[in-house]
Amino acid sequence: MKLQENFDAIIIGAGINGCGIAAELSRAGNSVVILERGAIGSGTSSKSSRLIHGGLRYLETAKISLVREALRDRMELLSLYPDLVQIKPFYLPLYQSSPRPPWMIGTGLKLYDLLSGKYSEYKSHRISTDEFLDHAPSLSPENLKAAFCYYDGKTDDLELTRRVAAEAHQNGAIIHEHIKIREIISDQSSHLIKTNRGEFTSRVLINSTGPWIDEVNQQFDLPTNYHIRKISGIHIVIDGLLTNDLMFMQTAGKRIFFIIPEPENDRTIIGTTEREESIACDEVSYDDSDIQYLLDSINDYLIPQRQLAVNDVKDVWIGIRPLIAKKNNPTDLSREYALDRHQSGSTTLIHVFGGKLTTFLSLARKTYRLLGNRLPLRR
Ligand SMILES: Cc1cc2nc3c(=O)[nH]c(=O)nc-3n(C[C@H](O)[C@H](O)[C@H](O)COP(=O)(O)OP(=O)(O)OC[C@H]3O[C@@H](n4cnc5c(N)ncnc54)[C@H](O)[C@@H]3O)c2cc1C
After folding, report:
1. Which strands, in side-by-side order, build the sheet including 337-344?
2. Which of 49, 63, 150, 165 could cysteine-pair with 58, CB 3.0–4.6 Å?
3. How far, in Å, CA of 269 to CA of 272, rounded?
4. Domain-terminating residue out of 153, 186, 213
5. Is the same domain home to 93 and 238?
6. Model pLDDT for residues 10-25, shown as the tens digit of each residue
7. CB atoms within 10 A of CB 65
8. Same structural domain for residues 259 and 313?
9. Is 52 within a domain?
């Protein structure tokens, strides 16, 4: 590598969002480099529930535009990556203990169908409890009062991130994995990034470090208008298929969790938990109580012969959702993501706060538009 390289844009972080932005900018002819401290997708983008979804539960808090945007992205991802993103039936049982009545679920699902717009080929519908139990023989028929079927997307998050990174690479983007950033020096004419493998300069710097964003901003003293709240979530993995199809489950306490069978890997993923974290991202870990919470949640609905114990758990992973909060109003968590732009002379810094796996296409395009659609960015 040359001692110093200049790019149209430097992106920090090779998660789905950093790679998506790199693909978008490089497709338009810009020279782009991604600096990633670990491997591509090694952060949150390999710790998700692997769903490409509008987020049914966001309807409860009337986040209609968020759901609509995610459903649009869902349709596009289904056609762009048919081998990696597939539409699947999801089943949603309602037990006596379910906190939401059937009419509410039915109405929410109809709205979800509507928000899928003209693309909605897959309509939700109520099914009989007998039909439901055919799809989920391990779930208990006791106290089951209603069941619904709706459709959403399923993917492999790490493979999707790697694919988008490969696209960026094909467009000419350079991706440096396992690189350590030592210093960021910004003035009115350029950003200079000093690393253990050389120096990089650009007029555009994009900080796409997911849940690490506050720590990066603090370490390199970057200006910012937002903070994040870190919400960790674990998934547990058991051998074999617990159900034939994906299940959207509700706990009596109004929390939700998914049962995600992966026939291709002969395993079932169950998740997730939610806990606010105040320690550094790298120190966040799970404990026995997190695993037990998921086991208790699912055992409430499993027939006696299929009850799960700790030794059935073959793998566990933990990820951190970065929920955005405005600096002057930390309780404003209304947006799914925010692009925080700082202009100084001819240099631009954009922080990517939040953003789901599902919405990386919209987020990347908005980032590009925020840069002024200049082709190439370098003048
Ligand atoms: C439990 C859980 C379940 C989820 N389920 C879903 C789901 O089903 N569907 C969905 O759409 N979304 C889901 N999400 C959200 C989704 O996974 C994330 O929003 C998305 O992966 C974030 O991508 P990102 O690129 O912003 O961040 P990340 O993937 O975390 O990428 C940030 C990258 O920055 C790198 N980095 C950090 N610091 C530095 C540094 N100093 N120098 C260089 N690189 C650095 C990290 O190594 C990392 O690779 C879930 C999230 C969680 C936690």
Report:
1. 174-176, 32-35, 9-12, 204-207, 347-354, 337-344
2. 63
3. 9
4. 153
5. no
6. 999 999 999 999 999 9
7. 12
8. yes
9. no
Rounded to 5 degrees, what are φ and ψ at 41? Answer: 75, 10
Q: Rounded to a whole number, what is the distance in angstroms from the first to the last CA of the chain?
A: 24
Q: Would the CB of 158 count as within 6 Å of ligand 1?
A: no
Q: Are both 11 and 90 inside the same structural domain?
A: no
Q: Which two tokens stand for residue 230?
A: 């870190």
- 139 and 285 in a common domain: no
Q: How many domains is the chain built from?
A: 3
39's tokens: 């491997």
Rg (CA), the chain: 22
Residue 120 has pLDDT above 60, yes or no: no
pLDDT band at residue 334 using 50, 70 and 90 as cut-offs: low
64 within domain boundaries: no
Decide whether any atom of ligand 1 lies within 6 Å of the 216 Cβ: yes
Q: How, if at all, do strands 267-271 and 226-239 pair?
A: antiparallel
pLDDT of residue 379: 41
Atom of ligand 1 nearest to the CA of 16: 25
Domain's final residue, options 105, 131, 153: 153
Ligand 1 pocket check for 85: Cβ under 6 Å:
no
Domain that holds residue 178: 4-45+158-225+328-370
Residues 314 and 234 in one domain: yes
Q: How far apart are CA 240 and CA 233, in angstroms?
A: 22
**CA triple 258-231-296, angle to 5 deg:** 40
CB of 319 shorter than 6 A to ligand 1: yes
- Is residue 311 one of the residues assigned to a domain? yes
Nearest to 15 by CA among 320, 265, 336: 320
Query: How does strand 198-202 pair with strand 4-7?
Result: parallel
Cα gap 168→201, rounded to integer Å: 19
